[in-house]
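Morning run. Coffee first, then this:
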Amino acid sequence: MANESTYTGISTLIANVYETALMAAQEGNIIAPHVTIFNDSQSSAPRIFGSYSGGTFASIDESTDMSTQSFNATAGGTLTPAVYGSMTIITQRRIKSDPSNAQREAGIYLGEKASSHIDTNLASLFSSFTAGTAGSTTGGTITWANIFHAQAMLRSKHVFGPYVCVLHPMQWYYLVSASSGVPTLMQSEAIKNSTVGRAYQASFSGIDFFVDANISSGTAAVGGMFSRPAIALDIRQPFTINPQWDASYSGNGAWELNASMEYAYGVYRPDFGAQVVGTSS
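And here it is:
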């Protein structure tokens, strides 16, 4: 046989699509770089996690031998992976007429779909933080007093820093446009130049601030201040694109670009995060 339409004929295109998509997925993930990442398994089996407890430090008499104390783990939750995917189609006619833009557009589309999906899922976990709630659940705007309250709640629970505070863009607007009480904010050049630099706003008192439009908007939008162990992202299959040729599509054929990944997500240490609630309207 000869003249088959095989992957070899489009391998360069797919490579470029994948690179663009992967870059878009990485740059669009605002929360993921600040959470606990697991990537030690490709199995679809759930991950059960827990925490240890037991044992105290106490004074010991010179003539007394120490006694054994308990050190046990209790189940804290389960991370159950699922497969997520999205498909786009590039026709043969489009490839022939405009291959460069087709590559770029397909890559950006698939990458942004993946990043938005992951980020939205992680943002939805803020309402499960248990260190406390700062702000108003009745439509009020976030104040700097609320920010320092959230910080104080975390510190009171001995949560180690640094802290990340992720807010809806409108919540951040109300925070920095206040007529008084706005502290002198600092800028981290390292964060500004990182993959999350586009969402980075400022730093102050051990807190790095980011805005994220994937937080559900409303009169009581839930942002979050947290330390890395608060949330877990358990990646079983990294983001990938599998191409498939469809000879019957549009009479000239087309390449299906099947993007997918398998992962689990959940609150890992809920007391390592505090809710920051306020209107985003």
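The CA atoms of residues 60 and 204 lie 43 Å apart. Good start to the day.
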